[in-house]
Amino acid sequence: MPMNNRLLRPTTGLDPDAAKYLAAVEAADGEPLEPAVRAAINAFFRDSKAAGVFDALKACCILAGARTLAGALVPVVGDAPTNVANGFVSGDYTRGGATPGLKGDGTSYLDSGRATNADPTSSMHLAVYPTAIGTTTLRAAGSYAPAGSDEVLIMNGDVRCRSRDTLSNVTVLADSIYGVSRSSSTEWYARGGQSDFAGSTGVAASANSRNMFIFAYNNDGSPFGISDATLAFYSIGESLSLEDLDTAVTNLITAIGEAL
């Protein structure tokens, strides 16, 4: 019986976690990824570990690079998101080029499967990577309680971020991580447009138990402010350096875009 050609591809130099992820994506896609795409993904695993941010990722998807929407929804870590009501279809997904990612349509969203209170009250992050901002006021990710809320709202002209207290604004640019990171009960910061911004100084409320949504925020079980942005990455988890995550993800999405 002929040998499967995929078994002949060398794996030397692959990060072990990257190798598992790539195998799962290729199984979902039904065929191998291009060497340049595999190299870009392997570099992300390697670089995010070297920067000390990988272990803080608890729910995460690379919404680019994979050949199919099913492959793009394979998680880097954590549970696979639910494509609620199968709202996203293959035509919403662009794997490479200038604006890779999953394009929101104002009605579709993902349930990350990660509860807001799965991470400690004083150690959390929530981040998305838009390659196109979209045209409307929207909620890119999060959940709302109103107390104990985490969210990233990309709006016309700015981004509003919350980490278990009041909102703070940052400036909008595409091709950058947008998110929040909290490392203490009284201090958090936001990042957007490749710059960091101080958050408010209120004491963190206990996080709510609702799952984080992506392309919307979870308002008592229902999506609110559904986004029409194009997102190429999201992550949820414990406190980390948003700058280091930004560098790793920007390099990843840039390399995928150039490869395809």
Tell me the count of domains. Answer: 1
* CATH fold label: Jelly Rolls
Number of helices: 4
What proportion of the residues form beta strands (DSSP E)? 25-35%
CATH class: Mainly Beta
Sheet with the most strands?
Answer: 9 strands, antiparallel
Radius of gyration: 17 Å
Mean pLDDT figure: 81
Beta strands, count = 18
The percentage helix is 10-25%
Name the CATH architecture: Sandwich
Based on Cα principal axes, name the global outline.
globular
**Can you write the helix and strand succession as a string?**
HHEHEEEEEEEEEEEEEEEEEH
- How far is the first residue's CA from the last residue's CA? 33 Å
Low-confidence runs (pLDDT<50, min 5 residues)? 1-11, 147-151, 162-170
Could you say which structural class the secondary elements and strand pairing correspond to?
A: alpha+beta
Report on the structure:
- With 260 residues, the chain is of the alpha+beta class.
- The protein has one domain: Sandwich (Jelly Rolls), CATH 2.60.120.
- Helices cover 20% and strands 32% of the residues.
- It contains four helices and 18 strands.
- Strand 4 and strand 5 form a beta hairpin.
- The radius of gyration is 17 Å and the shape is globular.
What is the strand and helix layout of this fold?
Elements: H1 16-29, H2 35-50, E1 57-62, H3 69-72, E2 75-77, E3 82-83, E4 93-94, E5 101-103, E6 110-115, E7 124-132, E8 141-144, E9 150-155, E10 158-163, E11 168-171, E12 178-182, E13 188-192, E14 195-198, E15 211-214, E16 217-219, E17 222-224, E18 230-237, H4 242-259
Parallel strand pairs: 8-16
Antiparallel strand pairs: 1-2, 1-18, 3-6, 4-5, 5-18, 6-15, 7-12, 7-18, 8-9, 8-15, 9-10, 10-11, 12-13, 13-14, 16-17
Helix pairs in contact: 1-2, 2-4
